[in-house]
UniProtKB/TrEMBL annotation, chain A:
Cofactor: [4Fe-4S] cluster; [2Fe-2S] cluster
Residues bound to [4Fe-4S] cluster: C73, C77, C80
Entry note: cofactor: Binds 1 [4Fe-4S] cluster. The cluster is coordinated with 3 cysteines and an exchangeable S-adenosyl-L-methionine.
PANTHER family hit by this protein: BIOTIN SYNTHASE, BIOTIN SYNTHASE, MITOCHONDRIAL
Gene name tied to this protein: bioB
Protein name per Swiss-Prot or TrEMBL: Biotin synthase
Reactions that this protein is recorded to catalyse: (4R,5S)-dethiobiotin + (sulfur carrier)-SH + 2 reduced [2Fe-2S]-[ferredoxin] + 2 S-adenosyl-L-methionine = (sulfur carrier)-H + biotin + 2 5'-deoxyadenosine + 2 L-methionine + 2 oxidized [2Fe-2S]-[ferredoxin]
EC number: 2.8.1.6
Domain of life: Bacteria
Organism of origin: Lentzea kristufekii
UniProtKB/TrEMBL annotation, chain B:
Transmembrane parts of this sequence: none
Name of the protein described by the UniProt record: Biotin synthase auxiliary protein
Residue ranges of domain Biotin synthase auxiliary protein C-terminal in the record: 39-61
Keywords: Biotin biosynthesis, Iron, Metal-binding
CC cofactor: iron-sulfur cluster
Family listed: Belongs to the BsaP family.
Pfam families, A to Z: BsaP
Residue ranges that the Swiss-Prot or TrEMBL entry lists as coiled coil: none
Function: Required for the activity of the biotin synthase BioB.
Native organism: Lentzea kristufekii
Length: 338, 62
């Protein structure tokens, strides 16, 4: 008679594999975590927090972002209120250089070390790149030494080189969702095109920031697939967004991701990506309210966007800074990043 | 006549509870409350400014 093989608990496995050895979970393991019953979420978050402390340390990276060019994008990402292809109320707008300098100063004043300049485009044209160049120059002339990241869509090699020359230290380009789900979300470009830009960024020595949005109709298996595809990229940072169903977009009637499900996702992504900067990005206000943000910070997250987002508003920065103080989590200083 | 600055419909027409909730949490105004025109909105880290081509600019500071 043979005994039935004993079921190994995925969190026990994770303790040995991720916490002790720093090896991220496999796709099958991530899926098991995403399927954990609700009463095991506290245990999951506690482990994810231990993993984050062990492999990333106690600091929290604080970032501010601003939209340099808003709306009117030719692409059709179904979650995006800035696509020109949907009847969204978001109209096109350009931020001028003084506005950009003010935004960078507001961000620096919160103690943030990262400032990300974002444009709603398929990829940058000459006008946008020269605006970014002038903007960075003006931010420096303002005496602001904050690190500058950009998110300007898909790049050519020449554009990658230009951004490096401007001193852009990190580039954000989200894969958004699992490769298998991407064609449902975007039809005007491919997951592979995004991947190509990410490889160029990495090869040029810029830090890679690549994440996505949870709650776009993907299955739990696709969520697990996505976590592992991100791990394969070895990004320096992964921003985790939760869908904001925005009016006029194809996803306007999608449900907001539930708090418990979102926390499971946070924990699972940390266990798949033990060494990555895992950032709370858009949608957390709607998904969690105030309470859940704290649980996320104690469940594997080690970076946040403070203040407003691109077209949506966040909590006032001070509220998040107070939260970090209450949690006794030190904010990463500029000196630690240089 | 006043219009909902989230959905652009007349305030008196229908329920705007959801709209008000969104405006209090994560959304800047998108429609002019006086004429329902879509406004040009710039969000910045600590505020927003929204401009109606007819009725001028309002900001989060006011
Ligand atoms: S490329 Fe960016 S700005 Fe354009 S529709 Fe997609 S997500 Fe929105
Ligand atoms: Zn309304
Ligand atoms: Zn008006």
């Amino acid at each position: 008679m043979t005994a039935a093989p004993e079921q190994i608990d995925v969190l026990d496995e994770a303790r040995e594999q991720v916490l002790e050895r720093g090896v991220g979970l496999t796709e099958a393991q991530v899926l098991k975590v995403l399927e954990l019953p609700e009463d095991r979420i506290p245990e999951l978050l506690a482990l994810a927090h231990e993993v984050r402390e062990r492999w990333c340390g106690p600091e929290v990276e604080v970032e501010g972002i601003v939209s340099l060019k808003t709306g009117g994008c030719p692409e059709d990402c179904h979650f995006c209120s800035q696509s020109g292809q949907f009847p969204s109320p978001v109209r096109s707008a350009w931020l001028d250089i003084p506005g950009l300098v003010r935004a960078a100063r507001q961000t620096r004043d919160t103690g943030a070390t990262e400032f990300c300049i974002v444009a709603a485009v398929r990829g940058p044209d000459k006008r946008l790149l020269s605006q970014v160049r002038d903007g960075i120059k003006a931010i420096r002339e303002d005496g602001n030494d904050i690190q500058i990241a950009c998110s300007l869509g898909m790049l050519t090699q020449e554009q990658v080189d230009e951004l490096v020359a401007m001193g852009v230290h990190r580039y954000n380009h989200n894969l958004e969702t699992a490769r298998s789900h991407f064609p449902e979300v975007v039809t005007t470009h491919s997951w592979e095109e995004r991947w190509d830009t990410l490889r160029m960024i990495r090869d040029a020595g810029m830090e890679v920031c690549c994440g996505g949005i949870i709650g776009m109709g993907e299955t739990l298996a696709q969520r697990a697939e996505f976590a592992v595809q991100l791990a394969e990229l070895e990004p320096d940072e992964v921003p985790l967004n939760f869908l904001i169903p925005n009016p006029g977009t194809p996803y306007e009637n999608y449900p907001v991701v539930e708090g418990a499900e979102a926390l499971r996702t946070v924990g699972a992504f940390r266990l798949a990506l033990p060494r990555t900067i895992l950032r709370f990005a858009g949608g957390r206000e709607l998904t969690f309210g105030d309470l859940g943000a704290k649980q996320g910070m104690l469940g594997g997250i080690n970076a946040i966007i403070v203040g407003n987002y691109l077209t949506n508003l966040g909590r006032p920065a001070q509220q998040d800074l107070d939260m970090l103080e209450e949690l006794s989590m030190p904010i990463k200083a500029l000196s630690q990043t240089l | 006549m006043t219009y909902c600055s989230f959905c652009g419909k007349e305030e008196a027409d229908g329920d705007h509870g959801f709209c008000r909730q969104r405006l209090s949490m994560i959304d800047p105004p998108r429609y002019c409350s006086e004429c329902a025109r879509r406004m040009v909105v710039q969000v910045t880290p600590d505020g927003w400014a929204a401009r109606c081509s007819r009725h001028g600019e309002i900001t989060s500071a006011r």
